[in-house]
Amino acid sequence: xxxxxxxxxxxxxxxxxxxxxxxxxxxxxxxxxxxxxxxxxxxxxxxxxxxxxxxxxxxxxxxxxxxxxxxxxxxxxxxxxxxxxxxxxxxxxxxxxxxxxxxxxxxxxxxxxxxxxxxxxxxxxxxxxxxxxxxxxxxxxxxxxxxxxxxxxxxxxxxxxxxxxxxxxxxxxxxxxxxxxxxxxxxxxxxxxxxxxxxxxxxxxxxxxxxxxxxxxxxxxxxxxxxxxxxxxxxxxxxxxxxxxxxxxxxxxxxxxxxxxxxxxxxxxxxxxxxxxxxxxxxxxxxxxxxxxxxxxxxxxxxxxxxxxxxxxxxxxxxxxxxxxxxxxxxxxxxxxxxxxxxxxxxxxxxxxxxxxxxxxxxxxxxxxxxxxxxxxxxxxxxxxxxxxxxxxxxxxxxxxxxxxxxxxxxxxxxxxxxxxxxxxxxxxxxxxxxxxxxxxxxxxxxxxxxxxxxxxxxxxxxxxxxxxxxxxxxxxxxxxxxxxxxxxxxxxxxxxxxxxxxxxxxxxxxxxxxxxxxxxxxxxxxxxxxxxxxxxxxxxxxxxxxxxxxxxxxxxxxxxxxxxxxxxxxxxxxxxxxxxxxxxxxxxxxxxxxxxxxxxxxxxxxxx
Length: 609
Fold this sequence. Notes:
alpha+beta; Glutamine Phosphoribosylpyrophosphate, subunit 1, domain 1; 6-stranded antiparallel beta sheet; 17 strands
């Protein structure tokens, strides 16, 4: 399992020094991994593996080197690949020789693929359309550095005498919208590959080219229902079963996530007779619904089950895990992602992959109920018919909030406005529901799950068959996605009805699973019959507050304790007001966690203003 790589290319002269940017980072000194170094006169490619390099992720011959960060599969309509199973690096090398970049229309998955063509002296990098496995690049003169770790690029820059500079505009975007909106990073001159991106670097004078072979506005623009609800359900069932076969075809030991929600329960139902072949896991605080519901499911279905409790040992290791989450997260993953590390470090001892239900429900539920993916400022701009005027109001509020220093807002206000109002996902002339759909898909959901993927990558490879371009293409042909039931406001009835897809799939394949309470606050089977909807409503009102009160992930005390023990370096007060952070730290605010974590990442990488 390849979990990180760093490639350095210089076609104008030979590369004499071989900088190891991973060895220069404290966070990697705590990891156990196998390292491979491949060098030619003009390239140095360093790749890290959980175990030995394997045929799935690496291939080399006399003419080409191929590295797969993530995983690739043939599309179901592929005419080039004969077998529907996980693709190896060798198969991609063959496809590249035959089809060149056109092979990208034959494959799908969650990947960043790096190919070095020795004969042409050309480095190419490809990302999938919904990319949650980001890759970064930095060019200085005739040299290009490419890495799955932005921190590695920073270490390379410093080792060669360059001092990384903070991109203050990106930090302000992060503060305002929860994410950076575009492909800029927190460091000037370092860029993130776009989703559906294609980078080419050759020995030509202007040899760096970055473009998108896939564009959501052009390739995912058919908002037209083609199937009835029953037909759509059958089509989606076949697609998800097909995806499960594909995603589990790699031969790696895989554990399956089991939560109290619908996504993982759907995976379990669709696995059918194979369900008992896997280990199921959940993590959380004992006696919360996050743990008791999966335990009930496992017990009633005779499943092998591993509960990972966030108890005393978790608390004792919190600082270590928070520090590693920030270090591996390249500034986008916060300290409270420590729970991922605790769980996946434990699972990673025996398993290389986890199968999850990530992402599915975010295209089913209304945007009004997906607060982790889209915040109020984003909504205000998306809703406004005069975004420039709305932006002025947002900036005035930002000045009064006091998190970002007024001097920085004044200095970079024009550039920030240009980026925000020029962002194609935030500002376009599409109908309101389509506008929301594109922003949620390409910014909110994609960048939220990017945080988890980044943190867990040294331990487990996350397989998520719902985050699949063919599944989304098909979903839009059915009546199920929220984009066809847009209300623009909260609607409890519609919000509950959007779960029909999951409940129907579960009931068709394993009816007993619909009779077990979900963390949505009701037994799924009540959604299948109009006569039981009143009972479902009563059950929902009874359980919703109880489930919320007994949540594994509600308490932020470990986060505050971590920041109390690890004070934020004052060197960044020119950008972020640390006094404001300290004053508000005991409140449950995202800004404290986000901005403090980002400052810790700057400090760990010795980045100063």
